[in-house]
Amino acid sequence: MEVIARGAEAVLYLSDGMVVKHRIRKSYRSPELDEMLRTTRTRREARLLALAKRAGVPAPVVLDVDPEEKKLCMSYIPGEKLSRAVGGMDEESLRAVFRLAGELAGRLHRRGVIHGDLTTSNMLLSGEKLYFIDFGLGEVSSSLEAAGTDLLVFRKCVRSTHFQHEELILESFFSGYRSSFEQAEQAMERMLSIERRGRYFEHRG
Ligand SMILES: Nc1ncnc2c1ncn2[C@@H]1O[C@H](COP(=O)(O)OP(=O)(O)O)[C@@H](O)[C@H]1O
Ligand SMILES: [Mg+2]
């Protein structure tokens, strides 16, 4: 058993060439809440991975789900996290990959699939293909509020992690997003208004 990642919520390991994502117990949560969160997130992730694929977004194939055991088994995607790949890329490749990321985000939102943690650590670059992973915090919703929140998470990720290329990345991402989602402009406006609301509360809080 080869461990490939140890996240805040889960341990991921390889087993017979497949990836097993096992959500582990968190002692800071009450046992009942912990049990419930791990079960629902496992189930939700399996469902959303399948929906993403159906929306035309590359994602691992779900091979097995065991909500009681908090285990999700999926296909292995060879490649690198986009967050890591960015450092070695020239401007042209950055433009292309982030345009693609935006286009894929638009395809999700068009089908009412909200990722829930849309960051470059949850995108795997595999050759020319970009895969979206880690849907455990996602939901199905056609509301602009949900889409705008997804976009804001992405923008914050770029601002904090990829600030050297912030402008190029966001410009490319949103041009891709507009190309695949009819309500892109409204969702982007909503992102800005959610951010303003947040700032307002931050100042007051
Ligand atoms: N299907 C997969 N194929 C290859 N690597 C994966 C796969 N799923 C996850 N990983 C690796 O494991 C890491 C953590 O997985 P993720 O689902 O994002 O869990 P977490 O909730 O801990 O962030 C990812 O960043 C990626 O490097
Ligand atoms: Mg992750």
Summary?
The chain is an alpha+beta fold and 205 residues long. It is 50% helix and 20% strand.
How would you sum up this structure, described in words?
- The chain has 205 residues and is of the alpha+beta class.
- The chain has two domains: 2-75, Phosphorylase Kinase, domain 1; 80-204, Transferase(Phosphotransferase), domain 1, CATH 1.10.510.
- Helix content is 50%, strand content 20%.
- The chain is built from six helices and ten strands, in the order E-E-E-H-E-E-E-H-H-E-E-E-E-H-H-H.
- The protein has helices at residues 31-54, 82-85, 91-110, 144-161, 166-180, 184-204, and strands at 2-6, 10-15, 18-23, 62-66, 71-75, 80-81, 113-114, 123-126, 129-132, 139-140.
- A five-stranded antiparallel β-sheet has the order 1-2-3-5-4, with helices on one face.
- Helix 4 (144-161) crosses helix 6 (184-204).
- The protein is globular.
- Residues 7, 121-122, 134 line the site of magnesium ion (MG).
